[in-house]
Amino acid sequence: MLDFMGNSRKNEVDNGAYSNTNIPVTLQQGLSLSPYMNVDPSYLPISQPEFIFPEGAVKQRGRLELAFGQIGAACILGAGIGGASGLYRGIKATTIAGETGKLRRTQLINHVMKGGANMANSLGVITIMYTCAGIGITWIRGTDDSLNTIGAAAASAALFRSAAGVRKAGFASAIAAGVATMYCIWNNGGFSSQRMREWKSYRS
């Protein structure tokens, strides 16, 4: 490290800087001199973190990258909800049947495992359908926005309930589209006053 402080005895100070090194020796208000650089940190450029993306790449994770986490989260959530529901049904059924001891414990475990597996399987399948539909719609439209999310939710719900008939499939699709719409509104800023003013100005 250069000893600039030692040079101060041999060089004159001109307006707070060494005449031969042009390094400031005075500090601006609220800043401290670095003991390692001997430079006023206010003269160093402050920039935000920058990330390097391949040329032409989108600066966000795509639906395929998010699919794995979404499917896993759906399965875990389904297992938890189904297990809790199975435990409730098991307690109710064994109480009515008057079962006790090891027999009741075995029945409770069976109810929990069956309920958790069924719900995890259902939510996992729905999520796979949703991600596949989202990827397909994004590929067809060439862009990824909220319309893709709403369309993917409606399509996956209709496909999942298609075996129950057209009416139930349409009803499930409408509910899924409504939930997806509410999520997109919340994700894009919600119903804040600023967003409402922007919407009114856009409509006018």
Automatic annotation (TrEMBL):
One of its GO terms (biological process) is protein import into mitochondrial matrix. Keywords: Membrane, Transmembrane, Transmembrane helix. Pfam families: Tim17 (PF02466). It is a multi-pass membrane protein. GO terms for molecular function: protein transmembrane transporter activity. The keyword Signal does not apply. InterPro entries: Tim23-like (IPR045238). Its main location: membrane. It is found in: Membrane. GO terms for cellular component: TIM23 mitochondrial import inner membrane translocase complex. The keyword DNA repair does not apply. The chain crosses the membrane at residues 120-140, 169-186. PANTHER family: SD19278P (PTHR15371:SF0), TIM23 (PTHR15371). This is Mitochondrial import inner membrane translocase subunit Tim23.
